[in-house]
Amino acid sequence: MKQTTALVAALCAASIAGPALAQSEMDMPDATATLSNTDGETVGEVQLFETAEGILARVTAENIEEGWHGFHLHEIGDCSADDFSSAGDHYAPDGNSHGLLSDGPAHAGDLPNIYADADGNIEADVTSTALTINGDMAPIMDEDGSAFIIHEGPDSYGEEAGAGSRVACGVVEVAS
């Protein structure tokens, strides 16, 4: 009887823990970027998940001015310059024009604006079918890496970005 009770208890525990373990594996990002502001303070993180159709970027940040902000992937994995200019331009491996609403395909690094609430917090899930982490199509982890940038204002989605200065930057690194 004690063995039966122990077996039932073990099976119950496994049925509860199994989905929890599967969920935690799903929540493990394929790559991350720690976002820092121009003072070098950590203000957030981008977690990247490879999907069948591209990537999902889960963005969390704090201490960002309230409002809409341009959010882009830039071509170089380098946030060392005070103004983050070391990250280069928007990631455009195919040479496409800027702007999600411009004629023709947009840069691979053009992503939707994200919103900081009245407390300066950002929580956003951003998807892109134009990017991959290590794949053949617009790989984020190319020779010189890539960096996510949050801009001071919203992107116009037109040929000229108009999102203003760079207020946060994070170099993409493969998750360990």
From TrEMBL:
Q: InterPro entries, alphabetically?
A: SOD-like_Cu/Zn_dom_sf, SOD_Cu/Zn_/chaperone, SOD_Cu/Zn_BS, SOD_Cu_Zn_dom
| GO process annotations (BP) | superoxide metabolic process
Which keywords does UniProt give here? Signal
The UniProt record lists the Superoxide dismutase copper/zinc binding domain at: 44-172
The residue range of the signal peptide is 1-22
In alphabetical order, the GO MF annotations are: copper ion binding
Describe the family membership recorded for this protein in Swiss-Prot or TrEMBL: Belongs to the Cu-Zn superoxide dismutase family.
Q: Which protein, by its recorded name, is this?
A: Superoxide dismutase [Cu-Zn]
Natural source organism: Salipiger pallidus
